[in-house]
Amino acid sequence: MRLVCTFLLILTGFLANAQQIPGKVINAITGEALAYAKISIKESSPILSKIDGSFQLDLEGKKAVKISVSYLGFYTRDFKISEESKPVLLQLYPDYEKLNTVYISSYRNPANKLIEKAIENREINDPREALDGFEYRSYSKFLIDNEKNPIQLTTDSTNSEIATIVNVARAYLSEKVTKHTYNQKHGGKEEVLGLKTAGFKKPIYDVLSLDIYPTSFYENNYSIFQTEYAGPLAKNAFRNYEYRILDTLNAERPAYLIYFKPKREEVIAGLEGVIHLDTLNYGIQKTETRLIGEIDLEIHEDYDFDTDKEVWLLKKRDIKIRPGTGGKDISVFGGNISLGTIQRRLSISSIFNNDPIDTDLYLDATTINYDYQLNTIPKIEKASAAISVIPEANQQQEDFWNSNRKEPYTAKDEATSIYVDSIIKTRNIERKIEVKKAMANGYYPLAFWDLQLSKLFKYNNFEGVRLGIGGKTNDRLSKKFNVGGYFVYGFGDEKAKYNLNTNIYLNRSTGTNLKLGYTRDIKEVASFNYLKAPPKFYLIEPRFVNINFFYNYEQYYAGLEHRINPQLSSEIRFSQTEVFNAREYAFLYNGELYHEYTVSTAGISFSWEPFSEYLETPENSILVERHYPRITAQIDKGFADVANGDFNFLRTGLKLEYTISRLDLSRTEFILEGNYATGTLPLTHTFHAYPNSSRQEAVLKRFSVAGKTSFETMYYNEFYSDRLAMLHMRHQLRPIKFSNFFQPEIVLISRHAIGDIGHMDRHQNIDFKSLNQGYSEVGLEINKIISGFGLSTAYRYGSYHLPGFSQNFAFKFTLNIRF
Asked: Which residues, if any, are the signal sequence (predicted)?
């Protein structure tokens, strides 16, 4: 019975839309589409054609209507439209005398003067600049729907009802209610009060971190779906856009209709559309934006004027994405959305699979803002998450939704819950979510066990082939702890290595975990690993293959991990490490040679991203958008006579990462790292500058994978330091577009290191140099020549320049693959 009712409601809605007449407005001489032509209907509000000249005309029960079509620089024409005449092609003839006055030089363009006024008045029209603070609520609906709504009837009524739901219902539907707060000092924050995702048993928070909803037109960068476009009302707007007045619209508050179009599409990502500018204070009344490329992106915004505060408030925003002229599918969850000509191809949170999606599907995201409170200055913690979800958000009752829904919950929405539930079961969607999230961190889930992919196979010059297995238990076994470890075997040194560890979740919402573990393995000499370094998963580790100076160690450790706030996380660790079999190396101290020794340490590590935006859920924190700088720091203290420790020392490390990203997709990266140690320090616990070149004489014999922060011309074991500073500078030029599939990226690289080491005489049976004269190399990469593969060159110069070109030159390949 429920299916029958749903079918009848959908059929009624389908028949009600039968009087929608499609049409297009074109230049009668050239056939060019006329974007945003004004279509006036008697006793109705005028409508505008879209950027491709298309429009939809609703007869509203009439057999025929008379319309008037006007466009600046063209003669106005009247037409009679009836249902029998669809589709409609409306041709306008240019008025050449008027056209000559339209296409005038930009410095006299009256539209530019209006845009200048709009930019100047942003401080009185934009509530974020005009007000000290405010708050409001929003209702959002995010769905993937079917454009054509086909209804396929068969002689079997049950089959027809099911066919209707499958063809008409959405492939995805999510609703949320959010409280927004803003103050001038700390910016904005969102608190999700209600979240509802059709068909999923567990909360799906990924949709909250998709960056679906764009920023303001006043911003320099207009961001949507993690792609940034030049803002049409940014301070540098005239550099990126050209403008034209299309019309003046008469209403309670008259508006100028301003058309904007990108100037430099091959350089800067831009949008095309119209802005309704208020004639009195030049505020935004409405925007209509379109981008047609590999996808078809359409954005509509409506604003209301608050007479008390005299600011324009965004009331409704609707974003629709369809497959575009490039023939690409809309595969938001688990696929790619390619935006326009130069915009980056991106992968947004895996929820659905990569199966081809019907070209009739579209994505629609609608937000309605309400209950504005403009006389309040809310308190916002500077270090709080940009988005937070209250614990009861996923358990809100129907009366909550009925009181907060600002759009009707239709029969199609009801059908969605049935359809999506069947999709999730038949396509095993929840399993695919689990797999993709685990693989992003280097694991593959098998029942209650997450298999660690990096432990399966490795190769290096010391162990040869290294095979093994490793992983950890997941929440299917317990939500209070996990148990993990690995077992590997090196066929070159003929030794087994293994680890056993556990994490006890003391408080999952704050990431407070007790860590315990035991390890017997090898480690590179002079390596310094930050406990809170961002997690990385490499298919191929660039430097690991050619490392040949390891030491064996046996370690017991205990640690406490805690997230102080979403941007700042910490870890404290205590460990006892026995070092042995470091080749022929011996450490001379107080007249005694140490071939084997024990290092007992206590360490604390921090990772701080002060400007990154996070989504805080009842379970954990999810990165929404990374902003730089990112700072990582660590202090290790070695103790003699504590837990059998042999040496007293202090080691510190500080890394600063900063990236400047530009609208033309060029990027400049800086990585500054410093290490400093005092006390009694064996070579195993000093520092190196990440050398990545073997001592083979021929350049091609040194051919390997280039790293991001490694010195490609520096030989392994050439330098060691107890004081070290490194600077890496990378400047990526904007991609060179030869075709949609061949867009190589050229990267200019400059690397520098300086360091020193005391008591070199303590380190026996090994030859190395100090870095006290400063090391420099310059490099060039051409990335993504074939898929993620590219080539890299580097050249050593300066104080440590070697005789002969080949000794200073490195030639390698690069690998840049995004999952």
From this structure: 1-18
pLDDT, tens digit, for every residue of 429-477? Answer: 677 777 877 887 889 999 999 999 999 999 888 899 999 999 999 999 9
Give dist(CA 579, CA 554) in Å, integer.
7
| DSSP strands (E only) in 19-87 | 20-27, 38-41, 47-48, 54-58, 64-70, 77-82
Query: How many Å apart are CA 200 and CA 425, to the nearest integer?
Result: 10
- In Å, how far are 52, 459, 577 from 647, measured between CA atoms? 74, 33, 12
Q: Are 388 and 616 in contact (CB under 8 A)?
A: yes
Is residue 579 a contact partner of residue 597, using CB atoms and an 8 Å limit?
Answer: yes
Residue 401: C-alpha distances to residues 176, 398, 725 (Å): 9, 5, 57
Q: Which residues, in sequence order, are bridge partners of residue 47?
A: 39
The residue out of 103, 138, 165 marking a domain boundary is 103
| Lookup: tokens for 441 | 């961190």
Do 347 and 419 belong together in one domain? yes
CB 416 within 8 A of CB 169: yes
Do 53 and 116 share a domain, yes or no?
A: no
DSSP code of 721?
Answer: B
Q: Which domain holds residue 125?
A: 110-432
Q: What is the dihedral of CA 693, 695, 697, 703, to 10 degrees?
A: -30
Query: Which tokens in the block code for residue 455?
Result: 């432990």
Give the three-state DSSP class for 709: coil
Q: Are 534 and 607 in contact (CB under 8 A)?
A: yes
Q: Are residues 141 and 264 in the same domain?
A: yes
Please tell me the distance from the alpha carbon of residue 168 to that of residue 163, in angstroms, as a whole number: 8
Q: What distance in Å separates the CA atoms of residue 750 and residue 144, rounded to the nearest whole number?
A: 46
Q: Are residues 802 and 739 in the same domain?
A: yes
User: What angle is formed at CA 628 by the lines to CA 289 and CA 453, rounded to 5 degrees?
Assistant: 95
Closest CA to 308 of 479, 173, 131: 131
Structure confidence by residue, pLDDT tens digits, 348-405? 233 333 444 344 567 788 999 999 999 999 988 877 788 999 999 988 998 999 999 9
CA 677 to chain centre: 37
User: Rounded to an integer, what is the distance from CA 445 to the centroid of its chain?
Assistant: 24
Same domain (yes/no): 621, 666 = yes
Rg of the chain on CA atoms, in Å: 31
pTM of the shown model: 0.82
For residue 761, what is the DSSP state?
G
Could you tell me the maximum CA-CA distance found in the chain, to the nearest angstrom?
A: 106
Please state, in angstroms and rounded to a whole number, the distance separating the CA atoms of residues 333 and 350: 5
Total domains in the chain come to 3
Neighbours of 665 (CB within 10 A): 20
Angle at 792 (CA atoms; ends 786, 798), nearest 5 degrees: 170
Residue-wise pLDDT for 202-249, tens only, equals 777 766 765 566 678 888 888 776 678 889 998 889 999 999 998 888
